[in-house]
Amino acid sequence: MLRPLLGDLFTILRSVAPFVLVLVTLKLALRSPFDSPKNACIGAFLVLVGLFCLQKGINMCLQPMAEDVGHGLIILRRHVWLILTIAFAIGFCATLVEPALKPISQQVEEATVGTISAKILVYATAFGSGIGMLCGIAKVVYDKPMLPFVLPFLVLLIILIPLSKDIFTSVAFDCAAATTGPVNIPINAAIALGLATALGLDPMRVGFGLVGLSCLGSAVSVLAAPHLFRLAATLSRLFS
Description:
Elements: H1 2-29, H2 37-72, H3 80-96, H4 101-111, H5 118-141, H6 147-163, H7 166-178, H8 184-198, H9 203-206, H10 210-239
């Protein structure tokens, strides 16, 4: 038991160490002083331990449970709307706990001096990710190709990008990329693969693509959010 754990810890150390080494080298080359060498060392250690615990937790718990859920969804095959509702809820909730999303949203809120709320940004991203997850599971359930599900998102992006400010476009794609983190990817893929296997379909053919759809859905929802708020404000003034 101890040997596999040490092996996993060494693998993460081997991945993190070069990156930390590059940052330290750049700081020394640029003669940028450390605010606190002690805090830097403690922080590097915490990153190593945190990544190790997160990865082991996902492999031991979240991924197997997600695959079991995918298998279990077969009992609801006569109620597709319920399967899709569950898929949306999973995509939405998984995005809310995605580690990379909150730092990005907080940085956006600080950079815009509160003009763009971090909380609204997180929920807008999670909503779009849930829609993407719903579309991905629909693709599996109905055994359809990828194009009919990708095309509407691409069309919406082509429409929304020229209508949006540059800051919203940039933020939307950064938030969308943040959904492709260590929580969403294993959960989405495991559920899709489990469901595809339970339906007797080829997992390699229909089990992948959910992460991409979730990413596109998040970009669309973040870009659409300002327009929807303006529309709601206009309607409120008209009917008040």
